[in-house]
């Protein structure tokens, strides 16, 4: 019985550790993705804004 309980505790600990690692990785990915999106927006949104009126005003 005690061996089963020990294994349960070990498995719970492993699950908790994996969950924390995944959480940290997720946060890092989110931060990196946010920074990348901001970079893309800073670089490409002005171009899009410049191109939009040209795309809207169709030649007759």
Main sheet characteristics: none
Number of helices: 1
Mean pLDDT over the residues: 84
Q: Which ranges are low-confidence, i.e. pLDDT below 50, for 5 or more consecutive residues?
A: none
Total count of strands: 0
Radius of gyration of CA atoms, rounded to a whole number: 25 Å
Q: Percent range for helical residues?
A: over 70%
Structural class of the secondary elements? mainly alpha
Explain what this protein looks like in three dimensions.
The protein has one helix at 2-56. It has one domain (1-53). The chain contains one helix and no strands. The protein is an all-alpha fold.
Summarize the structure.
The chain has one helix spanning 2-56. The protein has 60 residues and is mainly alpha-helical.
